[in-house]
Design a protein that fits this description.
single chain, alpha+beta, five-stranded antiparallel β-sheet, two-stranded antiparallel ribbon, 20 helices, 10% strand, globular
């Protein structure tokens, strides 16, 4: 049988042995004092290291791209001569640099990590499902998750304020990504980009990776709109103002981490030595107490149900895409995304074009959708909510006058309805009806 990428993964013993040889080849570079040579790439010690890597590791192809990629990796590993005063304490150890460089050159896959601060979030329990978790990490935890030493060497003018960032809850998603290119192409994908049609549209791609979209979809299925207690009219119990990607690849330069100032803070007064001091604490949306209990149900068993549904024919439409899109949207765009989520879950081409089964009544498309909602969820009021929201949607799309501003209750209704419909389809996919064709299932509703 042909060996797979995983079968060929190096053992720890192999890594350890190669790290010893790598240390020998790195040592002359680590002995160079700051400020180092005028051109590191032309220094004999760098040329010898590059030649050794090219002769030993298939990922190290000859060429200008690999020269720059290797030089960048050495800087992030803490090459002493590349670190200017007063940051000399950021230099990396030779042993660690050798081991990490061997791991990077031998790697057949990486673990990519998406780090999402949950702005506005109230106190939440620890949650873990699939390869995602919600947690309130310590500053030391965040330093590891972000690979803080590497960021400090790449961006010496920026301080990663893990102390302030650790005051927030974090949603962290990981995915394993196979490595099929050499490190030069990973660091500088020039050839790939030159062949790319920048105007082409991948209809299955969203604003986020599939792994992050799936995990966000799972988190958003919790009934956040039912736990709100601040009366703001917005169903969201948290926001994600930015996402940092830790690539797990030594040869891909990370981006700077946005400042903690971009998260939401509020003044808080404490008394110290008889004086009242003003400090900043994270702003949060208060949730009902039952939220913590119900959130504990988001676990691996629950995730397994989502995976079953995701692989079923009932999820061949972009349901996840639009539910996540609604979370990141504002105003009427948010309501439109919720409505499109419902249409993706319960609509089909035959509703417009036919033919329909003989036992199915002829109905207007929006009325058929309303009847499917009632059949799926067993609640006539939710069907009426859809009818009212559909009228609002139609006025907006077709340019008819909307007499006044849309009340916040309609935003919440749209969110609640979209979530309930999606959960209903997930339940169906996990039941006996999940083995039908999508068309047969939807015709059975209305």
């Amino acid at each position: 049988m042909e060996a797979t990428t995983q079968d060929c993964a190096p053992t720890e013993e192999t890594i350890a042995a190669k790290a010893v040889a790598m240390r020998v080849n790195l040592a002359p570079l680590w002995e160079l004092q700051s400020p180092g040579p005028d051109n590191l790439y032309q220094h004999p010690a760098f040329a010898a290291l590059k030649a050794y890597c090219e002769a030993t590791y298939p990922a190290a192809e000859p060429g200008l791209g690999s020269t720059f990629a290797l030089g960048d990796a050495l800087r992030t590993l803490g090459l002493p001569c590349s670190i200017k005063p007063p940051n000399s304490n950021r230099a990396g150890s030779l042993d660690e640099a050798a081991e990490r460089l061997v791991h990077a050159l031998e790697a057949t896959k990486i673990t990519r990590r998406y780090l999402c601060p949950l702005d506005w979030a109230d106190t939440l329990p620890d949650i873990e499902f699939g390869r995602a978790f919600v947690r309130s990490p310590t500053g030391a935890d965040l330093a590891v998750l972000f690979d803080a030493p590497r960021l400090a060497r790449l961006f010496p003018a920026q301080t990663l304020d893990v102390g302030r960032l650790a005051q927030f809850h974090w949603f962290v998603v990981e995915e394993e990504v196979p490595l099929t290119e050499g490190f030069a192409e990973r660091a500088f994908p020039m050839k790939h980009l030159m062949q790319k049609d920048f105007g082409e549209i991948d209809v299955h791609a969203g604003d986020h990776s599939a792994a992050l979209t799936d995990a966000l979809f799972g988190l958003l299925l919790a009934p956040w709109e039912a736990w709100h207690s601040d009366g703001s009219g917005d169903w969201r119990a948290f926001r994600i103002p930015w996402i940092h990607v830790e690539t797990g690849d030594l040869f891909i330069r990370p981006k700077q981490v946005p400042s903690a100032d971009q998260l939401s803070w509020t003044p808080f007064y404490v008394e110290e030595d008889g004086e009242q001091l003003e400090i900043e604490v994270p702003l949060h949306v208060s949730l009902y107490e039952r939220a913590e209990i119900e959130l504990s149900q988001l676990d691996h068993r629950w995730w397994a149900r989502l995976e079953i549904a995701s692989s079923s024919v009932l999820f061949t439409t972009p349901i996840k895409h639009f539910l996540v899109r609604a979370f990141f949207s504002e105003g009427m765009d948010e309501i439109m995304a919720h409505m499109t989520t419902i249409e993706a879950a319960l609509g089909m081409h035959e509703d417009f074009t036919g033919p329909r089964p003989s036992h199915v009544k002829k109905l207007k498309v929006h009325e058929r959708m309303a009847q499917r909602i009632e059949a799926l969820l067993g609640d006539p009021q939710l069907a009426d909510d859809y009818r009212a929201l559909f009228q609002l949607r139609s006025k907006f799309v077709h340019g008819r006058a909307i007499a006044s501003k849309v009340p916040s209750i309609d935003r919440v209704k749209a969110r609640r309805l979209a979530r309930k419909v999606v959960v209903g389809v997930i339940d169906a996919a996990n039941g006996s009806l999940g083995h039908q064709s999508r068309e047969d299932y939807l015709w059975s509703l209305a």
